[in-house]
Amino acid sequence: MEPDVESPAWTAHTQRMRELFPAWPDGFPLSAFVSRYLLGRVAGQLNISGRPEVPPRHPVPLEDDASFVVLDDADGSVTAAVLAATTGTVTVYADFLPHAQRLREMFGDSRVSVRPLPGFPPHISAGLDVRGARPAKALLISPKAQAAVADYVAALRPVVDEFMVVGRDKHLFRGINAELARGFERVDVSPGRYKSRMIIGSTPESGMGFSTARIEPHQRTARADIPGVPELEVSAYGACFGGPEIDAGSALLLRALAERHAGSASSASTSTDEVPAGRPRILDLGCGNGWLLTAATHVLGARQAVGADASAAALASAELTAEAGMPAGVDWRVEYTDSGEGLPQQAFDVVLLNPPFHAGHEIESDTAKRMMRSAHAVLRPGGRVVVVFNSALRYRRELEALFGQDNVEQWARDRRFTVLSAVKS
User: Fold this and answer.
1) Section 234-262 average pLDDT
2) Cα 187 from chain centroid?
3) Strand pairing of 186-189 and 160-168?
4) How far apart are CA 18 and CA 245, in angstroms?
5) Contact partners, residue 126, CB within 8 Å, separation at least 6
6) What b-and-e string marks burial along 260-295, b requiring 16 or more CB atoms within 10 Å of the CB?
7) pLDDT tens by residue, 145-196
8) Across-strand partners of 335?
9) Is the separation of the CB atoms in 37 and 46 below 8 Å?
10) What's the first-to-final CA gap in the chain, in angstroms?
Protein backbone atom coordinates (compact mmCIF):
# COMPACT_ATOMS: atom_id res chain seq x y z
CA MET A 1 0.00 0.00 0.00
CA GLU A 2 2.20 2.78 -1.28
CA PRO A 3 0.99 6.00 -2.92
CA ASP A 4 3.56 8.12 -4.71
CA VAL A 5 5.56 9.48 -1.76
CA GLU A 6 7.33 11.92 -4.07
CA SER A 7 4.09 13.53 -5.23
CA PRO A 8 3.27 17.14 -4.31
CA ALA A 9 0.11 15.89 -2.56
CA TRP A 10 2.10 13.61 -0.23
CA THR A 11 4.73 16.27 0.46
CA ALA A 12 2.07 18.86 1.34
CA HIS A 13 0.20 16.33 3.48
CA THR A 14 3.34 15.40 5.40
CA GLN A 15 4.17 19.04 6.06
CA ARG A 16 0.67 19.77 7.35
CA MET A 17 0.64 16.73 9.62
CA ARG A 18 4.05 17.52 11.09
CA GLU A 19 2.87 21.00 12.01
CA LEU A 20 0.32 19.33 14.30
CA PHE A 21 2.31 16.24 15.26
CA PRO A 22 6.10 16.73 14.95
CA ALA A 23 6.78 12.98 15.39
CA TRP A 24 4.54 12.13 12.42
CA PRO A 25 4.54 9.68 10.65
CA ASP A 26 6.54 7.14 12.68
CA GLY A 27 5.15 8.30 16.02
CA PHE A 28 1.55 8.07 14.78
CA PRO A 29 1.33 4.80 12.84
CA LEU A 30 -2.47 4.65 12.52
CA SER A 31 -2.65 8.23 11.27
CA ALA A 32 0.15 7.57 8.77
CA PHE A 33 -1.57 4.41 7.58
CA VAL A 34 -4.89 6.24 7.08
CA SER A 35 -3.08 9.03 5.22
CA ARG A 36 -1.48 6.65 2.73
CA TYR A 37 -4.74 4.79 2.23
CA LEU A 38 -6.91 7.88 1.65
CA LEU A 39 -4.41 9.72 -0.55
CA GLY A 40 -3.87 6.59 -2.60
CA ARG A 41 -7.58 6.07 -3.14
CA VAL A 42 -8.34 9.71 -3.94
CA ALA A 43 -5.52 9.68 -6.51
CA GLY A 44 -6.82 6.44 -8.02
CA GLN A 45 -3.59 4.59 -7.16
CA LEU A 46 -5.23 2.18 -4.68
CA ASN A 47 -8.45 0.21 -4.78
CA ILE A 48 -10.80 -0.16 -1.83
CA SER A 49 -8.62 -2.89 -0.30
CA GLY A 50 -5.58 -0.60 -0.36
CA ARG A 51 -3.84 -2.52 -3.13
CA PRO A 52 -2.22 -0.91 -6.18
CA GLU A 53 -3.83 -3.18 -8.76
CA VAL A 54 -3.64 -1.92 -12.35
CA PRO A 55 -6.32 -2.07 -13.47
CA PRO A 56 -7.94 -2.64 -10.06
CA ARG A 57 -10.32 -5.60 -9.89
CA HIS A 58 -12.63 -3.75 -7.53
CA PRO A 59 -12.45 -0.07 -8.49
CA VAL A 60 -14.38 1.96 -5.93
CA PRO A 61 -13.41 5.62 -6.29
CA LEU A 62 -13.09 7.84 -3.23
CA GLU A 63 -14.10 11.43 -3.92
CA ASP A 64 -11.89 13.94 -2.17
CA ASP A 65 -15.00 15.74 -0.84
CA ALA A 66 -16.53 12.62 0.75
CA SER A 67 -18.04 13.08 4.22
CA PHE A 68 -16.48 11.08 7.05
CA VAL A 69 -17.49 9.90 10.50
CA VAL A 70 -14.40 9.26 12.66
CA LEU A 71 -14.97 7.12 15.76
CA ASP A 72 -12.89 6.96 18.96
CA ASP A 73 -9.82 8.87 17.79
CA ALA A 74 -8.02 9.37 21.11
CA ASP A 75 -5.35 11.90 20.10
CA GLY A 76 -6.91 13.51 17.02
CA SER A 77 -4.19 12.32 14.64
CA VAL A 78 -6.52 10.16 12.54
CA THR A 79 -9.07 12.98 12.28
CA ALA A 80 -6.26 15.32 11.22
CA ALA A 81 -5.21 12.83 8.54
CA VAL A 82 -8.77 12.72 7.16
CA LEU A 83 -8.96 16.53 7.13
CA ALA A 84 -5.60 16.81 5.36
CA ALA A 85 -6.39 14.15 2.75
CA THR A 86 -9.99 15.13 1.91
CA THR A 87 -12.14 18.26 1.66
CA GLY A 88 -15.53 17.02 2.90
CA THR A 89 -17.20 17.47 6.28
CA VAL A 90 -16.12 15.33 9.23
CA THR A 91 -18.25 14.20 12.17
CA VAL A 92 -16.18 12.99 15.11
CA TYR A 93 -17.63 10.76 17.82
CA ALA A 94 -15.65 9.90 20.96
CA ASP A 95 -17.12 7.64 23.64
CA PHE A 96 -14.52 8.72 26.21
CA LEU A 97 -15.13 12.25 27.56
CA PRO A 98 -11.47 13.40 27.74
CA HIS A 99 -11.04 12.44 24.09
CA ALA A 100 -14.16 14.38 23.08
CA GLN A 101 -12.90 17.42 24.99
CA ARG A 102 -9.46 17.19 23.38
CA LEU A 103 -10.91 16.86 19.89
CA ARG A 104 -13.23 19.81 20.44
CA GLU A 105 -10.24 21.94 21.43
CA MET A 106 -8.15 20.76 18.47
CA PHE A 107 -10.71 21.16 15.71
CA GLY A 108 -12.55 24.44 15.86
CA ASP A 109 -13.08 23.99 12.13
CA SER A 110 -16.38 24.49 10.32
CA ARG A 111 -15.72 21.15 8.60
CA VAL A 112 -15.69 19.28 11.92
CA SER A 113 -18.54 18.44 14.30
CA VAL A 114 -17.50 16.73 17.53
CA ARG A 115 -20.04 14.59 19.37
CA PRO A 116 -21.27 14.34 22.03
CA LEU A 117 -22.01 18.04 22.25
CA PRO A 118 -23.18 19.75 25.45
CA GLY A 119 -26.85 18.89 25.81
CA PHE A 120 -26.62 16.17 23.16
CA PRO A 121 -27.65 12.68 24.35
CA PRO A 122 -24.23 11.18 24.95
CA HIS A 123 -24.39 7.66 23.56
CA ILE A 124 -24.23 6.88 19.85
CA SER A 125 -27.56 5.04 20.16
CA ALA A 126 -29.15 8.50 20.18
CA GLY A 127 -28.28 8.83 16.49
CA LEU A 128 -25.82 10.83 14.41
CA ASP A 129 -26.77 13.33 11.72
CA VAL A 130 -24.25 12.99 8.89
CA ARG A 131 -26.31 14.43 6.05
CA GLY A 132 -24.50 15.20 2.83
CA ALA A 133 -24.78 14.94 -0.92
CA ARG A 134 -23.68 11.29 -0.79
CA PRO A 135 -23.42 8.51 1.79
CA ALA A 136 -20.60 9.03 4.27
CA LYS A 137 -17.55 6.92 5.09
CA ALA A 138 -17.00 5.66 8.65
CA LEU A 139 -13.53 5.23 10.13
CA LEU A 140 -13.23 3.45 13.49
CA ILE A 141 -10.04 3.03 15.50
CA SER A 142 -10.15 -0.62 16.52
CA PRO A 143 -11.76 -1.13 19.95
CA LYS A 144 -11.03 -4.00 22.33
CA ALA A 145 -14.53 -5.50 22.23
CA GLN A 146 -16.32 -7.06 19.28
CA ALA A 147 -19.60 -5.83 20.77
CA ALA A 148 -18.39 -2.24 20.33
CA VAL A 149 -17.81 -2.85 16.62
CA ALA A 150 -21.31 -4.32 16.38
CA ASP A 151 -22.88 -1.23 17.98
CA TYR A 152 -21.03 1.20 15.73
CA VAL A 153 -21.91 -0.77 12.60
CA ALA A 154 -25.57 -0.91 13.63
CA ALA A 155 -25.65 2.82 14.37
CA LEU A 156 -24.00 3.95 11.14
CA ARG A 157 -25.00 1.33 8.59
CA PRO A 158 -28.02 3.42 7.45
CA VAL A 159 -25.84 6.43 6.57
CA VAL A 160 -22.51 5.05 5.29
CA ASP A 161 -21.49 2.96 2.29
CA GLU A 162 -18.00 2.17 3.59
CA PHE A 163 -16.99 1.28 7.14
CA MET A 164 -13.24 1.16 7.79
CA VAL A 165 -11.67 -0.25 10.96
CA VAL A 166 -7.99 0.62 11.38
CA GLY A 167 -5.72 -0.77 14.06
CA ARG A 168 -2.35 -2.14 14.99
CA ASP A 169 -1.93 -5.71 13.79
CA LYS A 170 -1.85 -7.01 17.37
CA HIS A 171 -5.14 -5.26 18.22
CA LEU A 172 -7.22 -6.44 15.26
CA PHE A 173 -9.27 -9.64 15.53
CA ARG A 174 -11.47 -11.79 13.30
CA GLY A 175 -14.63 -10.65 15.04
CA ILE A 176 -14.27 -7.32 13.23
CA ASN A 177 -14.60 -9.11 9.88
CA ALA A 178 -17.68 -10.92 11.16
CA GLU A 179 -19.43 -7.73 12.29
CA LEU A 180 -18.66 -5.92 9.04
CA ALA A 181 -19.94 -8.91 7.06
CA ARG A 182 -23.25 -8.69 8.93
CA GLY A 183 -23.72 -5.09 7.85
CA PHE A 184 -22.09 -4.85 4.43
CA GLU A 185 -22.04 -6.77 1.16
CA ARG A 186 -18.27 -7.17 0.95
CA VAL A 187 -15.32 -7.10 3.35
CA ASP A 188 -11.72 -6.35 2.33
CA VAL A 189 -8.51 -6.53 4.34
CA SER A 190 -5.68 -4.20 3.39
CA PRO A 191 -1.97 -4.99 3.25
CA GLY A 192 -0.07 -4.02 6.38
CA ARG A 193 2.23 -1.09 7.00
CA TYR A 194 3.57 0.49 10.21
CA LYS A 195 2.52 -2.81 11.86
CA SER A 196 -1.04 -1.69 11.13
CA ARG A 197 -3.76 -2.48 8.64
CA MET A 198 -7.41 -1.81 7.80
CA ILE A 199 -10.55 -3.94 7.46
CA ILE A 200 -13.18 -2.39 5.17
CA GLY A 201 -16.87 -3.20 4.85
CA SER A 202 -18.62 -1.71 1.83
CA THR A 203 -21.97 -1.62 0.07
CA PRO A 204 -22.45 0.57 -3.01
CA GLU A 205 -25.31 3.07 -3.03
CA SER A 206 -26.06 2.84 0.68
CA GLY A 207 -28.43 5.10 2.63
CA MET A 208 -27.80 8.59 3.93
CA GLY A 209 -29.14 11.19 6.35
CA PHE A 210 -29.94 10.65 10.02
CA SER A 211 -29.20 7.29 11.62
CA THR A 212 -32.17 6.15 13.69
CA ALA A 213 -31.05 2.53 13.93
CA ARG A 214 -32.03 1.01 17.27
CA ILE A 215 -29.09 -0.44 19.17
CA GLU A 216 -30.10 -3.06 21.70
CA PRO A 217 -27.92 -3.38 24.80
CA HIS A 218 -26.69 -6.76 25.96
CA GLN A 219 -28.51 -7.92 29.09
CA ARG A 220 -28.17 -10.62 31.70
CA THR A 221 -29.63 -11.40 35.11
CA ALA A 222 -26.86 -11.08 37.68
CA ARG A 223 -26.85 -13.22 40.83
CA ALA A 224 -24.10 -12.24 43.24
CA ASP A 225 -24.89 -14.45 46.27
CA ILE A 226 -24.20 -11.52 48.60
CA PRO A 227 -26.58 -10.82 51.51
CA GLY A 228 -28.89 -7.92 50.75
CA VAL A 229 -28.28 -8.01 46.99
CA PRO A 230 -31.24 -9.13 44.86
CA GLU A 231 -31.06 -10.51 41.34
CA LEU A 232 -30.46 -7.54 39.07
CA GLU A 233 -30.92 -7.11 35.34
CA VAL A 234 -27.63 -5.69 34.07
CA SER A 235 -27.49 -3.90 30.71
CA ALA A 236 -24.44 -2.93 28.69
CA TYR A 237 -23.83 -1.37 25.30
CA GLY A 238 -20.94 -2.70 23.27
CA ALA A 239 -18.32 -0.12 24.25
CA CYS A 240 -19.03 -0.50 27.99
CA PHE A 241 -16.02 -2.19 29.55
CA GLY A 242 -16.79 -5.72 30.73
CA GLY A 243 -20.21 -5.86 29.08
CA PRO A 244 -23.14 -6.94 31.30
CA GLU A 245 -20.99 -9.17 33.50
CA ILE A 246 -20.31 -8.73 37.22
CA ASP A 247 -16.71 -7.61 37.53
CA ALA A 248 -14.81 -9.90 39.92
CA GLY A 249 -13.15 -6.97 41.68
CA SER A 250 -16.47 -5.17 42.16
CA ALA A 251 -18.00 -8.36 43.60
CA LEU A 252 -15.15 -8.64 46.12
CA LEU A 253 -15.61 -4.98 47.07
CA LEU A 254 -19.36 -5.36 47.53
CA ARG A 255 -19.02 -8.52 49.61
CA ALA A 256 -16.58 -6.76 51.95
CA LEU A 257 -18.86 -3.72 52.12
CA ALA A 258 -21.89 -5.88 52.93
CA GLU A 259 -20.04 -7.70 55.70
CA ARG A 260 -18.84 -4.45 57.30
CA HIS A 261 -22.26 -2.86 56.98
CA ALA A 262 -23.93 -5.85 58.61
CA GLY A 263 -21.38 -5.72 61.41
CA SER A 264 -21.80 -1.99 62.03
CA ALA A 265 -25.59 -2.27 61.99
CA SER A 266 -25.50 -4.85 64.80
CA SER A 267 -22.81 -3.16 66.89
CA ALA A 268 -22.50 0.07 68.83
CA SER A 269 -18.80 0.24 68.01
CA THR A 270 -17.35 3.49 66.71
CA SER A 271 -14.15 2.03 65.22
CA THR A 272 -12.85 3.29 61.89
CA ASP A 273 -13.94 0.14 60.07
CA GLU A 274 -17.63 1.04 60.27
CA VAL A 275 -19.65 2.06 57.24
CA PRO A 276 -21.46 5.40 57.79
CA ALA A 277 -24.80 4.67 59.44
CA GLY A 278 -28.26 5.84 58.42
CA ARG A 279 -29.19 6.24 54.77
CA PRO A 280 -25.94 7.40 53.17
CA ARG A 281 -25.32 9.32 49.98
CA ILE A 282 -23.14 7.13 47.77
CA LEU A 283 -21.07 7.70 44.65
CA ASP A 284 -19.74 5.00 42.34
CA LEU A 285 -16.83 6.73 40.61
CA GLY A 286 -16.25 4.85 37.36
CA CYS A 287 -19.61 3.11 37.52
CA GLY A 288 -19.33 1.01 34.34
CA ASN A 289 -22.50 -0.98 33.70
CA GLY A 290 -24.10 0.21 36.95
CA TRP A 291 -24.27 -3.14 38.75
CA LEU A 292 -22.09 -2.10 41.69
CA LEU A 293 -23.93 1.21 42.11
CA THR A 294 -27.34 -0.46 42.10
CA ALA A 295 -26.32 -3.39 44.30
CA ALA A 296 -24.56 -1.16 46.86
CA THR A 297 -27.68 1.01 47.09
CA HIS A 298 -29.60 -2.09 48.20
CA VAL A 299 -26.89 -3.13 50.68
CA LEU A 300 -26.48 0.28 52.32
CA GLY A 301 -30.08 1.46 52.09
CA ALA A 302 -28.78 4.63 50.45
CA ARG A 303 -31.06 7.62 50.06
CA GLN A 304 -29.04 9.04 47.16
CA ALA A 305 -26.93 7.19 44.58
CA VAL A 306 -24.80 8.76 41.84
CA GLY A 307 -22.92 6.89 39.13
CA ALA A 308 -20.12 8.75 37.35
CA ASP A 309 -18.10 7.66 34.34
CA ALA A 310 -16.09 9.13 31.46
CA SER A 311 -17.53 6.61 28.97
CA ALA A 312 -20.80 7.53 27.28
CA ALA A 313 -21.51 3.84 26.65
CA ALA A 314 -20.96 3.03 30.33
CA LEU A 315 -23.30 5.80 31.46
CA ALA A 316 -26.03 4.74 29.05
CA SER A 317 -25.61 1.18 30.34
CA ALA A 318 -25.63 2.20 34.02
CA GLU A 319 -28.78 4.22 33.48
CA LEU A 320 -30.62 1.18 32.11
CA THR A 321 -29.34 -1.04 34.94
CA ALA A 322 -30.39 1.49 37.57
CA GLU A 323 -33.82 2.01 36.01
CA ALA A 324 -34.44 -1.73 36.22
CA GLY A 325 -33.04 -2.39 39.69
CA MET A 326 -32.88 0.65 41.99
CA PRO A 327 -34.96 0.43 45.19
CA ALA A 328 -38.09 2.56 45.17
CA GLY A 329 -37.70 6.07 46.53
CA VAL A 330 -33.96 6.40 45.94
CA ASP A 331 -32.77 9.66 44.40
CA TRP A 332 -30.33 8.47 41.73
CA ARG A 333 -28.64 9.86 38.64
CA VAL A 334 -25.63 9.37 36.38
CA GLU A 335 -22.96 11.97 35.60
CA TYR A 336 -20.71 12.22 32.52
CA THR A 337 -17.40 13.31 34.06
CA ASP A 338 -13.69 12.69 33.70
CA SER A 339 -12.41 11.15 36.95
CA GLY A 340 -15.08 12.94 39.00
CA GLU A 341 -14.26 16.43 37.75
CA GLY A 342 -17.09 18.86 38.47
CA LEU A 343 -18.84 16.76 41.13
CA PRO A 344 -19.92 18.64 44.29
CA GLN A 345 -17.31 18.77 47.06
CA GLN A 346 -17.90 17.09 50.44
CA ALA A 347 -21.26 15.79 49.22
CA PHE A 348 -21.02 12.01 49.75
CA ASP A 349 -20.82 9.63 52.69
CA VAL A 350 -19.46 6.65 50.73
CA VAL A 351 -17.46 6.52 47.49
CA LEU A 352 -16.98 3.21 45.69
CA LEU A 353 -14.00 3.00 43.37
CA ASN A 354 -12.90 0.27 40.98
CA PRO A 355 -10.55 2.35 38.82
CA PRO A 356 -9.40 1.31 35.35
CA PHE A 357 -5.77 0.47 34.77
CA HIS A 358 -5.95 0.49 30.97
CA ALA A 359 -6.39 3.40 28.56
CA GLY A 360 -7.53 1.65 25.41
CA HIS A 361 -4.91 -1.04 24.81
CA GLU A 362 -2.25 0.50 27.09
CA ILE A 363 -1.65 0.04 30.84
CA GLU A 364 -1.66 3.28 32.85
CA SER A 365 -2.24 4.39 36.46
CA ASP A 366 -2.71 8.17 36.19
CA THR A 367 -6.49 7.86 35.86
CA ALA A 368 -6.74 5.82 39.06
CA LYS A 369 -4.68 8.40 40.96
CA ARG A 370 -6.90 11.25 39.73
CA MET A 371 -9.97 9.29 40.77
CA MET A 372 -8.57 8.75 44.27
CA ARG A 373 -7.96 12.49 44.61
CA SER A 374 -11.52 13.17 43.45
CA ALA A 375 -12.87 10.63 45.94
CA HIS A 376 -11.13 12.48 48.76
CA ALA A 377 -12.51 15.82 47.56
CA VAL A 378 -16.15 14.74 47.28
CA LEU A 379 -16.30 12.89 50.62
CA ARG A 380 -17.63 14.70 53.66
CA PRO A 381 -15.42 14.58 56.79
CA GLY A 382 -15.91 11.13 58.28
CA GLY A 383 -16.91 9.72 54.90
CA ARG A 384 -15.35 6.58 53.49
CA VAL A 385 -13.91 5.46 50.16
CA VAL A 386 -13.77 1.74 49.38
CA VAL A 387 -11.31 0.89 46.60
CA VAL A 388 -10.64 -2.37 44.76
CA PHE A 389 -7.67 -2.86 42.47
CA ASN A 390 -5.38 -5.46 40.98
CA SER A 391 -3.05 -6.39 43.83
CA ALA A 392 0.06 -5.90 41.70
CA LEU A 393 -0.68 -2.16 41.40
CA ARG A 394 0.05 -1.29 45.07
CA TYR A 395 -2.29 1.68 45.43
CA ARG A 396 -2.15 1.70 49.24
CA ARG A 397 0.61 4.30 49.23
CA GLU A 398 -1.56 6.66 47.17
CA LEU A 399 -4.47 6.32 49.60
CA GLU A 400 -2.26 6.81 52.65
CA ALA A 401 -0.86 10.01 51.17
CA LEU A 402 -4.40 11.36 50.74
CA PHE A 403 -6.18 10.03 53.84
CA GLY A 404 -3.37 9.40 56.31
CA GLN A 405 -1.67 6.11 57.10
CA ASP A 406 -3.79 5.42 60.19
CA ASN A 407 -7.04 5.90 58.24
CA VAL A 408 -6.40 3.21 55.62
CA GLU A 409 -7.01 -0.49 56.17
CA GLN A 410 -7.35 -3.64 54.11
CA TRP A 411 -10.86 -5.09 54.00
CA ALA A 412 -10.37 -8.04 51.65
CA ARG A 413 -7.89 -9.75 49.36
CA ASP A 414 -7.99 -12.74 47.03
CA ARG A 415 -5.65 -14.13 44.38
CA ARG A 416 -6.18 -11.15 42.06
CA PHE A 417 -7.65 -8.19 43.91
CA THR A 418 -7.24 -6.12 47.07
CA VAL A 419 -9.97 -4.05 48.74
CA LEU A 420 -8.88 -1.08 50.85
CA SER A 421 -11.00 1.34 52.84
CA ALA A 422 -10.02 4.87 53.87
CA VAL A 423 -11.81 7.41 56.08
CA LYS A 424 -11.55 11.15 55.51
CA SER A 425 -10.50 13.06 58.63
Assistant:
1) 94
2) 26
3) unpaired
4) 43
5) 120
6) bbeebeeeeeeeeebbbeeebbbbbbbbbbbbbbbb
7) 999 999 999 888 888 999 999 999 999 999 999 999 999 999 999 999 999 9
8) 308
9) yes
10) 61
Give CA 202 to chain center in angstroms.
25
Contact 97, 310 (CB under 8 A): yes
Task: With CA atoms as reference, report the closest residue to 189 among 50, 44, 82.
Answer: 50
Radius of gyration of the chain (CA): 24
Nearest Cα to Cα of residue 61 among 137, 5, 1: 137
Domains in the chain, please, with CATH? Answer: 8-202 (3.40.50.150), 218-263+277-424 (3.40.50.150)
Taking residues 98-109, report their average pLDDT.
88
Residues 6 or more apart whose Cβ sits within 8 Å of residue 41: 47, 48, 50, 61, 62
Pairing of strands 304-309, 281-285: parallel
The string of pLDDT tens digits covering residues 49-58 is 999 866 655 5
For residue 125, the model assigns a pLDDT of: 75
- Choose between 200 and 361: higher pLDDT: 200
Q: Which residues contact 199 (CB under 8 A, 6 or more apart)?
A: 164, 165, 172, 176, 177, 180, 187, 188, 189, 190
424 phi, psi to nearest 5 deg: -85, 125
The amino acid present at 343, given as its one-letter code, is L
CA 319, CA 310: separation in Å to the nearest integer? 14
**pLDDT band with cut points at 50, 70 and 90 for residue 347:** very high
Helix axes 29-42, 77-85, angle to 10 degrees: 20
| Sign of the torsion angle spanned by Cα atoms 35, 38, 43, 46 | positive
Integer Cα distance of 139 and 160 in angstroms: 10
Which phi and psi angles does 176 have, rounded to 5°? -65, -45
State which amino acid sits at residue 152: Y
Backbone φ and ψ of 103, nearest 5°: -65, -35
CA–CA distance from 93 to each of 115, 127, 310 (Å)? 5, 11, 14
Using alpha carbons, select from 72, 205, 68, 212 the residue that is nearest to residue 128: 212
Identify the bridge partners of residue 220 per DSSP, sorted by sequence position: 234
In order, the DSSP letters of 101-144 are HHHHHH---TTEEEESPTTS-SSGGG--B---SS-EEEEEE--S
In contact, 23 and 194? CB cutoff 8 Å = no
